[in-house]
Design goal:
globular; 210 residues; mainly alpha; 0% strand
Length: 210
């Protein structure tokens, strides 16, 4: 089973920080207190990984809780979102780029860990997608909003799923080098996300009567 590809810890913590910022921004928008901001930052930053390790893989304590750098990233993201919430819109392009990259990386890493744990390819693809978008779904549920991934709009979950499918296919079916497959999956998710924003690609509403 594949298991050699590892997400660089610096990028992982940076992505956790970014997602935590979005959770804190949601708390600012909802006018929550400090506890609310911290909870939303934690859920958004680490929710996908906690679902992956705690619900699907169940291989001991979640990595994101065993390594204090992840929690430090959450705290830093909560502080940044609470302190500079009204001014962070100036960095929207940077956030979009990092978010798109993190989406692909988290999806691929979730799929990789699932394959290494012995899950079949379909299950590994599902866990990878959950790893990528789970934090955002939990954030939306906690603030009592309809999760964005359920609504027609720009590619997000679709982009993450495409990256996971490509990675799993290359590694498990075609025997491609694991690192090369991971980079290909990340690149596909990253490109699909950004192109959907730039070119206006959107998912359509599902209609059961058509």
């Amino acid at each position: 089973m594949p298991g050699r590809f590892q997400l660089p810890i610096a990028f992982d913590v940076a992505a956790t920080f970014l997602f935590a910022v979005t959770g804190a921004l949601a708390a600012v928008r909802k006018r929550y207190d400090l506890v609310g901001a911290l909870v939303l930052a934690l859920v958004t930053g680490l929710g996908g990984a906690l679902l992956r390790d705690g619900l699907f893989l169940q291989q001991g304590p979640p990595v994101v809780l065993a390594d204090p750098r992840y929690l430090a990233g959450v705290l830093a993201g909560a502080a940044a979102g609470a302190a500079f919430g009204r001014r962070l819109h100036r960095f929207r392009l940077l956030f979009l780029l990092v978010d798109a990259a993190a989406l692909g990386v988290y999806g691929v890493v979730g799929a990789q860990k699932s394959l290494a744990a012995g899950l079949p390819v379909v299950s590994a693809t599902l866990v990878g997608a959950v790893n990528a978008v789970g934090g955002g779904v939990l954030r939306d549920v906690l603030v009592r909003e309809e999760p964005l991934i359920f609504k027609p709009g720009e590619f997000y979950a679709v982009a993450a799923l495409a990256g996971c499918v490509l990675y799993v296919t290359l590694v498990a079916r075609l025997g491609v080098n694991e690192l090369a497959a991971a980079l290909a999956g990340i690149a596909l998710a990253f490109s699909a996300r950004l192109l959907s924003i730039r070119l206006g690609w959107r998912t359509g509403a599902f209609r059961g009567d058509e």
